[in-house]
Amino acid sequence: MLSSTEATGKPVVRLGDRLFSGTARLAAMLIMVALAGVAVFLVVEGLPGLSAPADIYRPADDFWSYVGPLVWGTVLAAVVALVIAIPFSVGLALFISHYAPPRIAGPIAYVIDLLAAIPSVVYGLWGGLALAHWMTPSINWLYDNLGFIPFFAGPPSVTGRTMLTAGIVLSIMVIPITTAISREVFAQTPRLHEEAAMALGATRWETIRLAVFPYAKSGVVSGVMLGLGRALGETMAVAMVLSATPVVTLNLISNSNPATIASNIAANYKEATPDRQSLLIATGLVLFIVTFVVNFIARLIVARSERNVTR
Amino acid sequence: MAKSIDVSDLDIYYGDFKAVEGVNMTIRAKAVTAFIGPSGCGKSTFLRALNRMHEVIPGARVEGKVIVSGQSLYEPGIDPVAVRRQIGMVFQRPNPFPTMSIYENVLAGMRLNSKKISKSDADAIVERSLQGANLWTEVKDRLSKPGMGLSGGQQQRLCIARAIAVSPEVLLMDEPCSALDPISTSAIEDLIHELKSEYTIVIVTHNMQQAARVSDDTGFFNLKATGEPGHLVEFNPTNKMFTNPDEESTEAYISGRFG
Asked: Which element (helix H / strand E) includes B3?
């Protein structure tokens, strides 16, 4: 066998290797092509929407004042969702990977994974009908006791269909994804590092702080980013909870809430004129860019904190 | 504050499986005690039972007594965390915390034990511990560099510095040189010699020459048969163990006729 390579002078290439690397490369390229395709579509179809006649933008006058409240609503809803979801997800993931006995941890993990499979319309129905109703007392309480904080400035909504409710619905949709990924990286913490901490007399929590969190940090951020993607892009759940007003406000508990870009598209696309459609596509382009920027910033933060560690 | 350890009738179980059976021994203070024996004979398990590190594995439990200076480690009210603060451990593979600098690695245990340390105290502890681990001159100019950037032997000495920074009474070492080259190994062995003036040291090793070189007492563990629990065959001063052991199987193992 050896002599045959020497004779031809060519390196040996196995068919299986070539097949596999070819398939992998194809898959990677297809994703890039799909992404580029989406970007091109958004730019081509959306550009007219940037400079249409003024009446297209009603109730606003131009593109930026039309899309501004939507971007604000999108980011606000996502931030509220993440603020609620991150502590829950990390806590849940830790419970499953480090605290719960295996007998309980398995079923809990399974149920949380199931949450991810529930369609967003169902979450929207539940949020708009059930959760909004239950939220009214809490909203009144927040207004009465914490009304001095701009987030709870009120006046409190009587229907409970508020940004806070939408954020909670979104957070429940984000939790399964973030939990699943955090759980995996927590569980992969090298035993060696955990034992190092324990041998120094670390308690369970100190072991987690000393060995698990530093190891899992970048993985958890990945999980949060995936969750954020879901929160930014969610349409139905938000559209079914919020009745939208184009305002920019920090107020989470009033009746006037900005829609998110995605829910605005979902709510208006069907009955839109072609001009209006290209406006909506242009807002889609803005969402595309917002998502990129947010992801990029998050990656930058992780990369920087990791560089601090290794250098 | 080195302490002696008295072990009586110690059985160690993993669930229903009895891993180690009926160990009796007295580990002297300020001396080096080595455990030798074939793989799977329970010597590492036994070592871990001395600071309750075996409890990391679910279902692990012991019967019998381990007494360190009059205090039984397995009394119901005893917190394993407190035990491990008194009885430090160094592992087979060097395991500095990957996200921490050399400086922070040494202080990791101190940060757990006491809430606030002044900068000057911290500096003093780091210097004393690194000097104690014969690492100070090699790293004193790069204390802020990550611990993972050191060579394997230096990493292991960093782990020893981290363990002695909290001033334990006993230092357990689980095959501390098995992942190191001969030069690093000899550096660690020299260090063990120096450390025994202050600490009680227990070391598990696969290397019989190492046991002969570093230890004052040696325990030989073996399995009665495959699937049977490991037990302590012989425990004697190292000199006697390697020249004129009481048991025939000890001699067979040491002279290489088996194992």
From this structure: none
* Least confident segment among A169-173, B109-113, B183-187: B109-113
B187 — phi, psi (to 5°)?
Answer: -65, -40
The pLDDT score that the predictor gives to residue A309 is 52
Its pTM stands at 0.79
- Examine the pLDDT at A88 and tell me if it is beyond 80: yes
Within a 10 A sphere around the Cβ of B183, how many other Cβ atoms?
A: 9
Beta strands in chain B (DSSP E): 5-14, 17-27, 32-36, 60-68, 71-72, 87-90, 170-174, 200-204, 217-223, 230-237
CATH superfamily of A51-310: MetI-like (1.10.3720.10)
User: Which amino acid type is present at position B86?
Assistant: Q
Tell me the CATH number at B21. 3.40.50.300
This model of the complex carries an ipTM of 0.85
Q: Does a structural domain hold residue B259?
A: no
Beta carbons of B97 and A200 less than 8 Å apart: no
Residues of A in contact with B51 (CB under 8 A): 199
CB pairs under 8 A between A and B: 71
Q: How does pLDDT run across B147-202, given as a tens digit for each residue?
A: 888 988 899 999 999 998 888 889 999 999 888 888 888 888 998 998 889 899 99
CA A188 vs. chain centroid, Å, equals 23
